[in-house]
Specification:
CATH class of the largest domain: Mainly Alpha
Radius of gyration: 18 Å
Largest sheet: 3 strands, mixed
Structural class: mainly alpha
Shape: globular
Number of helices: 9
CATH topology of the largest domain: Arc Repressor Mutant, subunit A
Length: about 190
């Protein structure tokens, strides 16, 4: 079932509230994992070969981020701890989205070209949208953009990458509102 961006935003807000987070608190995926009983394991913590740990950890960490795996009783998430803390937070929020939105996972979780194959493109887009709303609430991104603040300060507040903060600010519509407001203000001064 496809979810609208608005519905995903509401679901993310509900989850943040369930976890006791205010709109200005960063989302902690590890706290969510504990609350929901979904183990998060780094690739070094699972029975992966030394070759796999080396390949994904130090040689080519860009090849793989995280995976949601059904274990017969529920889900586990295996993630690449070689990424920066902000990237790990984003990767884990994406996997949280698959669980919360109840995406149906397939057994093939990677394609030959190292792409995600566990869900459809639509599910991946939903997971990205939900994770973004979970990490940075839309209203906060919108206000930040309207006020002309930089993405770095938003990223610092929510402990995410600057790219994530820029993306959330752009999607919020706040930058457009700020531009229109500035144009009207400048037009009125003439």
């Amino acid at each position: 079932m496809a979810h609208s961006k608005a519905a995903l935003g509401r679901l993310a807000a509900d989850l943040r509230a369930e976890l006791g987070l205010s709109d200005s608190d960063p989302f902690d995926p590890f706290a969510w994992a504990k609350e929901w009983g979904v183990p998060f394991l780094s690739i070094a913590e699972v029975a992966a070969s030394e070759e796999a740990v080396r390949r994904f950890g130090s040689e080519r960490p860009d090849l793989w981020s995280a995976a949601l795996i059904q274990d017969g009783r529920g889900h586990i998430v295996v993630y690449n701890a070689a990424h920066s803390p902000v990237r790990v937070r984003s990767n884990l929020a994406h996997e949280v989205a698959h669980v919360v939105v109840e995406h149906q996972m397939t057994s093939a979780w990677m394609t030959e070209s190292s792409g995600c194959a566990g869900t459809s493109r639509a599910d991946e887009n939903e997971a990205a949208e939900f994770a973004g709303a979970l990490l940075i609430p839309a209203e906060r991104a919108k206000l930040h953009a309207i006020r002309g603040r930089d993405a770095a300060s938003l990223a610092l507040t929510y402990q995410v990458s600057i790219e994530m903060a820029q993306w959330r600010m752009r999607l919020s519509g706040g930058e457009t509102i700020a531009r229109r407001s500035q144009s009207k203000w400048h037009g009125a001064r003439r």
